[in-house]
Design goal:
The chain is α/β, with parallel strands linked by helices. Helix content is 38%, strand content 12%. α9 links the parallel β7 and β8.
């Protein structure tokens, strides 16, 4: 018709999986309506995965670790999953099933299950640990309908000490525990993800990783090309799928360090694309309850979402467009 111009817009994501990992363990818990506002915000930027990170703040049957007001109930999680599904976002459990379990071991009932009393890592040769992991994984696999299941496994600082006690190589001990947990989750039909920092530290284990596991390399500052090649090449050579993770530097700052965060998004995404990543996720940690304000990080969530959709960082005038 006169006065009208016909046009065709062609657009598709650079990566199939574009996620956000939200730390639900290190600050006062946001209310469910706040999480739903997060989901609404992320849906605007075409995020399709929401990793629900919890160390001990998800109430599992039989484990009254924290007071009820310091945990999310299963009913709340189900409501969030349904809310997100309607907005095309998959809510994925992001548990910690080896280390980072300080709140669990703080309870006297469980303190002797840690490698040191009240520590952070499971004592792997205690037979009670296997039963607890089986129970936790079963409950989480039933609660979260996603086909993905993130098992954690990062920053096991006492791995070498514990391996020495058991007369094993650290990489062998780690691989044993990861394989046990992966098999349990895969038995529920889940695709397993695990943090990759210990795999990077002990790369000899990478070709032996459980089949089907997705490794999640994470770095929070931009690195050199040689550095990315050094820790990503072993996964590529071994045929291990990866999803790379960036972060909004908000966990120890009153105001997020957006400059470094955005540079890291761009370089981590570029490296991920080069080495065959299936996805990119932004993480928002809340370690410092006095400094880490979730809403201040929202521009960073948008930046990560745009970066993972278009395969490159937004232009330098990102904030001008974001705030318009």
């Amino acid at each position: 018709e006169p006065g009208f111009t016909e046009a065709t817009a062609t657009d598709w994501p650079a990566l199939p999986y574009r996620g956000v990992m939200m730390d639900m363990s290190h600050t006062q818990l946001p209310r469910l309506d706040e999480l739903e506002r997060q989901i609404d915000f992320l849906a605007r930027f075409k995020i399709n995965q929401y990793f629900f990170y919890s160390e001990a703040t998800l109430a599992l049957d039989g484990y009254p670790i924290l007071p009820p007001n310091a945990q999310f109930s299963k009913a709340q999680v189900r409501e969030l999953i349904d809310y997100a599904r309607q907005r095309h976002i998959d809510v994925i459990p992001n548990a910690e099933l080896y280390g980072h379990l300080h709140d669990f071991f703080r309870k006297e009932l469980y303190s002797d299950l840690a490698v040191i009393p009240y520590g952070g890592e499971f004592r792997p040769d205690d037979p009670r640990v296997g039963e607890i992991l089986k129970d936790w994984i079963g409950q989480l696999a039933t609660l979260f309908t996603s086909r993905f299941f993130h098992v954690g496994f990062d920053e096991t600082w006492l791995l070498e000490r514990e391996a020495g006690r058991m007369n094993k190589r650290p990489e062998d001990l780690y691989l044993e525990q990861l394989t046990r947990v992966t098999n349990l989750a895969q038995g529920h039909g889940k695709t397993v993800l695990a943090w990759a920092d210990m795999m990077e530290k002990f790369p000899a284990m990478i070709p032996k990783l459980p089949k089907g596991l997705i490794a999640v390399p994470w770095h929070y500052e931009p690195l050199t090309e040689a550095a990315y090649s050094g820790f990503l090449t072993p996964f590529q050579k071994a045929g291990v799928p990866i999803m790379v993770l960036g972060a909004i530097r908000n966990w120890h700052w009153l105001s997020p360090d957006y400059k470094t965060s955005f540079q890291n998004d761009a370089s981590m995404l570029a490296a991920g694309l080069k080495y065959g990543a299936t996805g990119f996720a932004e993480s928002e940690w809340t370690d410092n309850t006095q400094a880490a304000l979730m809403r201040l990080a929202r521009p960073g969530l948008a930046h990560g979402a745009i970066t993972s959709w278009q395969g490159a960082a937004p232009a330098a005038d990102f904030f001008e467009h974001y705030s318009s």
